[in-house]
Amino acid sequence: MEEHLRELAARLQGPARLKSDLLTEARHGLLDAVEAYREGGAPPTEAQRRAVAEFGSPAQLLPSWQAEMAVGALRGLSLRMLAVAGVLVVAGDLTWRGASWSAGPPPPAAYMLLSSSVDWIWIGALVLAVAGLLLVAVGNRSPRPGLAALQRAVGTGLTGMLVLGMMAGGALFAWSLGIWDAALSWPPMIIGAVVVGAAYFSLARAARGWLLATAH
Do residues 122 and 25 both lie within one domain? Predict the structure, then answer.
């Protein structure tokens, strides 16, 4: 039985927490089956053999389990993106309010264009995150043909939006420091950079988990 679980663990890919939950559920199911066979008079080894045979081979179980991992990973990525993008869209401009340079000459037009692009990237990510959660909810209630392809498309879009958001946001931050020397010592700027960095890291982990779950 333990060998069977180890093989499942080695071949199942996706977020560690979801993987652990599935394997724990599988272990409990196998132990219940073994106990039932033992109560029926089967020796311990035979009881485990029968339980494993009844439970199914990795080839039989992994397709549905991997699909479940992909759905769970999309849910996690969508929830994190919803929270992070929502905060970035609403609070992004607050970083600059009250700054000593805010009353000075306006930044270059290209800078303003990049700033607007960052806002639109995260608005698009918000829309995709809502779509991802809706697709997960619909799939949980009544799986439909083609739904997995839509979920994959949304997950790909969210991952792409994350990459674009990180690149554009990093470029905007670096450009801001180049324009305003005092930006690096402005407390809201420092706090914002730390918070955004942590948010990027969290989103990157969620995106990586989704990519692992859908690559197999």
Answer: no
**Are 122 and 197 contained in the same domain?**
yes
Which amino acid would we find at residue 55? F
Give the integer Cα–Cα distance in Å for 75 and 80.
9
Interval 21-41: pLDDT, tens: 888 988 898 888 889 888 888
- Give the count of domains, the chain: 2
Question: Among residues 10, 29, 56, which one ends one of the domains?
Answer: 56
27 with 116, same domain?
no
Domain that holds residue 50: 2-56
Is the distance from CB of 75 to CB of 133 less than 8 angstroms? yes
> Is pLDDT above 60 for 142?
yes
Asked if 96 contacts 172 with a C-beta cutoff of 8 angstroms, the reply is no
- Which amino acid is residue 126, in one-letter code? L
Nearest to 1 by CA among 43, 36, 46: 46
Q: Does residue 178 sit in the same domain as residue 99? A: yes
Q: Which pLDDT does position 98 carry in this prediction?
A: 57
DSSP 100: T
Residue 96's pLDDT is: 61
Percent of the chain residues topping a pLDDT of 90: 31
| Nearest residue to 204 (alpha-carbon basis) of 67, 77, 66 | 77
